[in-house]
Amino acid sequence: MNFTLRRKPKTKMVSPDDRMTLTEHLAELRSRIIRSLLAVVLGVIVLLALYDQVLNFLRGPYNQLCADNKQVQCDLIFIGPLEGLTTRLQICTYGGIILALPVILWQVWRFIVPALHKNEKQYAIPFIFSAIFLFLLGAVIAYYTLTPALDFLISWAGSGVKAQFTVSKYVSLVGLMMAVFGVAFEFPVLLVFLQLVGVLTPQVLMKGWRYAIMIIFVIAGVITPSGDPYSMLALAIPMSLFYLISIVIGLLFQKRRRAAEAAGD
Questions:
Q1: Helix 124-155 × helix 60-68 angle, to 10°
Q2: Closest Cα partner for 232 from 121, 132, 142, 128?
Q3: How many other C-beta atoms are found inside a 10 Å radius of the C-beta of residue 65?
Q4: Long-range contact list for 217-222, CB < 8 A, 24+ apart?
Q5: CB 164 within 8 A of CB 72
Q6: Is 259 contained in some domain?
Q7: Per the domain annotation, does 3 fall within a domain?
Q8: pLDDT per residue over 22-50, tens digit each?
Q9: What is this structure's pTM?
Q10: 13 within a domain of the structure (yes/no)
Q11: Within a domain: 43
């Protein structure tokens, strides 16, 4: 007797009308999470090999501050035997997540794409590239805002006080600032996506733009880790512009959709 083993074909989702069982959803989610974690681990390994170069890069705003402000001691220090190790792991973990961001976003998109219609799926690549670009743009703005932000914070200590930071607290501030700015800069991607799937309309966003910008400035003041006015403005002003740009993009999508519906009729 001959037995032939055949691999069970994957469920193919061609439209939102096709349904997956709960077990299939959980299996799909597990595979997406595993792939994302493997990408993060690979990123961490790369960062471990390039740790000294990455640390020198992160020191850039601090070095500039040392050149401009004589109240600052230029050497970063650590005061605990494990602080050097934990700082290295912290930097490599943050960096690994950033390096794995394209893979993570792609896995997230592939998980939600079965719920979308065919005409919505075509925007996958633009959305992923936009999300990566905006995250990196936010991180870069945070990086170059750090020098005036640190100078502002040090000035509150008073004259005759020397500032010297531990490497762990400095790296935590840099990483948190870049992460907060990067995530906040995903704001327009979310707005455009909500308009694309019909949750929001450009008209609703236009109607409440004054309140939206006021809320943006309040949120920027709350979530900015350093709490200085330079960082708050560097976060709030681009987010306000992104809000207006997302309205324009939503209007273009809306016009295109109406033209397609008219042509179909």
A1: 30
A2: 142
A3: 22
A4: 220/184
A5: yes
A6: no
A7: no
A8: 787 788 888 889 999 999 999 999 999 99
A9: 0.76
A10: no
A11: yes
Please give the pLDDT value at position 44: 93
Tokens of 3: 């037995």
Residues written for the chain: 265
- Are 195 and 127 in contact by the 8 Å Cβ rule? The answer is no
d(CA 93, CA 89): 6
Query: How many domains is the chain built from?
Result: 1
Domain that holds residue 44: 22-254
Q: What is the rounded CA–CA span in Å between residue 246 and residue 244?
A: 5
Which amino acid belongs to residue 254?
A: Q
Q: What is the pLDDT of residues 202-241, one digit of tens each?
A: 888 899 889 999 999 999 888 888 778 888 999 999 999 9
- Distance between CA atoms of residues 202 and 211, nearest Å: 15
DSSP of 79-97, one letter per residue?
-STTHHHHHHHHHHHHHHH
